[in-house]
Specification:
79 residues, mainly alpha, Helix Hairpins, 66% helix
Length: 79
């Protein structure tokens, strides 16, 4: 990732999971919960940007390797 060399997707996802667990516990005071929520939103946006950049790189590589198109990836929701 060119301009996101210091961004580590796996760490960001782990941090995001930790934030979600903290928020779901319901034990945080409102002010701290709001700060955690804001931090989670920032992490989510960073992850989305990193994944979009990776998708674009894959598309470029596929085009240069023979022009195959990417198919949409359907994620099955867990109940």
């Amino acid at each position: 990732m060119s301009n996101r060399q210091s961004f580590h997707l796996e760490k960001a996802l782990a941090d995001l999971e930790s934030i979600v667990e903290e928020l779901e516990s319901g034990d945080l005071p409102l002010e701290k919960a709001m700060k955690k929520f804001e931090e989670g939103i920032k992490l989510t946006r960073s992850c989305q940007a990193a994944l979009k950049e990776a998708e674009q790189k894959v598309e470029i590589l596929l085009e240069s390797a023979g022009g195959e198109e990417l198919e949409d990836f359907d994620v099955e929701e867990e109940d």
